[in-house]
Amino acid sequence: NKYGEIKTDSKGGGIKECLDRGTSKEDLNIIKAIANGDMVKIRHIGNKYVKDRIISNKEKIAIKTVLDAFEALGGKL
Description:
two-stranded antiparallel sheet
């Protein structure tokens, strides 16, 4: 849960940040809440910048698809 775990890359005028790690039960609860929320706003916090944005319905559907696949492969929600 440290900022140093995040890998940052800037290409094409944008910034991309990635984090690859296992998911805890708390993480899954947050992901499910995002997927099922009516209007979900998330905040991206970087070293220098902060940006808020709304999660689109298309993104929520994609998250639900990943959660369904996770469960189908034996993962427990």
